[in-house]
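If your schedule permits, I should be very grateful for your opinion on a structural question. What I wish to show you is a protein chain and, alongside it, a tokenised description of its three-dimensional fold. Would you kindly read the sequence against the tokens and tell me how you understand this chain to fold? Here, with my thanks, is the record as I have it:

===
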Amino acid sequence: DKIAVWAQGSDGTFDLTGERFILYRYTNSMTQAVFTAYITPMEEDTYTYYAAYPTPTAINGTEATFSLSAVQSGEDFVGDCDIMVSAPIQGGALTADKVTPLDLRFSHKMHAMRFDIPENGNLMGMAIDKIEFTFPTNVVGDVTLDVANPDAAPTLSNGSNVLTLDLPNGAEAGDTLWAMIFPTELTGEITYKAYSGKYSSVEGRLEII
């Protein structure tokens, strides 16, 4: 795992701007993690720290842009699509000779959607390789947010209303699939089509309630 970290000094300047930190180890309780990075030594000061997961594709000051993929795996942990931002916290300088504790608490910024294939509901009679969903509005694309203002609504650009679950292990009746989408109001209906090898289903419709 990797996170991006910003460090703003008491004079308002940034010593770190989206610096990539890599997971070093978990604590024994597995409730906390230690991250590490090669950085320029920081002067002693009280810093305000901001952080985001995963690492952004683009950074402009405290604005970070992430790619919310139009092709996802359907697994319950979707990794790079689960965009999170930490609440700002204050702490000392990061140094090489000791671990600096930072109590970073992340909040999820995207919406998770769950799709259940009913028992005895796979009328294709074979494992499903792919499902293509078409939403009434754009739900994937480039997500931009301000890590210094984690409560502000993110924005979406280069968007698409088509989301594909490309299932590496296939899916059968009774399976549950997950997807991450941009947080937006959905009205109307979602259409979908399932694929298995060279076969495809008829178009299905899901009413948004």
Remarks:
- The longest strand covers residues 14-26.
- The chain has a mean pLDDT of 91.
- Residues 87 and 148 are 8 Å apart (CA to CA).
- The two ends are 36 Å apart (CA to CA).
